[in-house]
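Practice problem: predict the structure.
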Amino acid sequence: MDVFEAIQVRRSVRTYEQTPIPKEKLEKILEAARLAPSAMNLQPWHFIVVTDKSKREKLSQAPFAKFLREAPVVIVGCGNHKVSPKWYRVDVAIAMQNMVLAATGEGLGTCWIGSFNEKEVKELLKIPEEYCVVALLALGYPRRKLDIKSRILNLARRRKKLEEIVSYEEYGGKPED
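Answer:
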């Protein structure tokens, strides 16, 4: 699968098979994060791979995160705010998007999670003070039979057309023919 195809087929997956992810696939996904660009190449990130069922259960307690208990892997993306105070959030997000695309290319599903209590996550995973939790990423093989909520979301939320989100030279500017 090429990158553009991965971008086109990627979906937020909220139902997962309980099949473990092979070590080689997980390492490839993490390597995609490592290779991401960052401001001044500071690489202010650290990723915590959570497979422990009780920890995933605790991470799933936040609103909109209930399905984390079902995902076989949760990756917690952290950024060092002392190393890169202005850009750590952007840098971690870029690296995590690389993971999303790599996972899609490997036949895995993902879902970004922004719903979490940072203090609780840091305590649970023993994350040092200089790191902030930027996002969580559910990772696993998508369950083939979508639940009714996922079906409705997939039908109701269509992508905007390109001309609705792009301007040229200034806001509202049209492309030259």
